[in-house]
Amino acid sequence: MELKRVVVTGLGALTPIGNTIPEFWDGLVNGVSGAGPITGFDTSKFKTKFACELKNFNAEDFLDKKEARKLDPFVQYAIVSTDEAVKDGNFDFSQLDTNRIGVIWGSGIGGFKTFQDEMKNFFLGDGTPRINPFFIPKVIIDIVPGHISIKYGLRGPNFATVSACASSTNAMIDAYNYIRLNMCDVIISGGSEAIINEAGIGGFNAMHALSTRNDDPKTASRPFDKDRDGFVAGEGAGTIILEELEHAKKRGAKIYAELVGGGMSADANHITAPHPQGLGARMVMQNALNDAGLSTSDIDYINVHGTSTPLGDISESRAIVDLFGENAYKLNISSTKSMTGHLLGAAGAIEAIAAILAVKNDIVPPTINHFNDDPECDPKLNFTFNKAQKRTIRAAQSNTFGFGGHNASVIFKKYEE
Length: 417
Known about the structure:
Blueprint: E1 6-14, H1 21-29, E2 36-37, E3 50-51, H2 65-68, H3 73-88, E4 101-106, H4 112-123, H5 135-139, H6 143-152, E5 158-161, H7 167-180, E6 186-193, H8 198-206, E7 236-244, H9 245-250, E8 257-266, H10 279-292, E9 301-303, H11 310-324, E10 332-334, H12 337-340, H13 347-361, E11 363-364, E12 389-390, E13 395-402, E14 406-413
Parallel strand pairs: 4-5, 4-6, 9-10, 9-13
Antiparallel strand pairs: 1-7, 1-8, 2-3, 6-7, 8-14, 11-12, 13-14
Helix pairs in contact: 3-6, 7-13, 10-11
């Protein structure tokens, strides 16, 4: 059978550097850091006292107060970013076949704050399980696509993907496949995460995964810098609406870019550490290129996983050089985590949005906070340090890698008839 073409027709973002798509893009191209002291809880006894929190976000500005209380923050974020994407895509679902419109969502952890707060209340009590009746529906990851489908009356495929930090990229790849196999016309995809709380920060501190640069939070996320010391936690959501090309053209939709390939692989190496030679990272990029029918010379920009961890950045840069060869030095590479922090399961979604907008606008967002080259990360590569660069971007690749060795990569091209 002939595979359908899949295009991006709606975007929504709720991030530490902007609460809408225009604000997010403006923050990216201007190299804004979203990091600052944590305001949501007392960090005096924590090793890390900063993160990339959302700014000026109040769920009750978007949701009924009573309804908002029934939702964990990661669900609130998803609903808000999806509302922006639906409006951005000018969707009138009453005029479409909602049996062929689905929702596939990604999150690495889900309702962490709800779980923490409910267990705290239980263990501080007298042993009577006075559990909120909304406890389970607030915690489970698949509740996000459930809420979105209910809100818009969408009856197509509806589920969640969980692969740690690769979760929302896996969700996009699933959505892409359902549409190109002609099983759906439209799928709302994306990811959300809300782990800036005692359990999240304390847990990642215990793993020695987070930066502890408490004296200078804004420059703490330093991908590919010699003095990087761990990732900076972020929170928020990104929504990407994928649509079959002819369906989009028929309703006169604006088209941001075309999704042309998705790849997946496993490191099969360690529960948290990447393969030291980047074998899984190399394979996932190659798989995405194969799926897209592209060669390494066709890619102009890679939005890398680039977490600012000592081992991860070395592994990914080695994988790029190994796969792309001489073409690696013609690429622009950047880690937007230097600005947003690491949104875990939502990282793939907001970083894919960054790649889509880069293709659309021919601007490469920078990797900020670079001070000293790391010889282990091949300084000859163009990491787009500190300042955005203009260039024609025919195709962009976006990588996400998760604990457990899960790797996922997607490729977006300029849309052409």
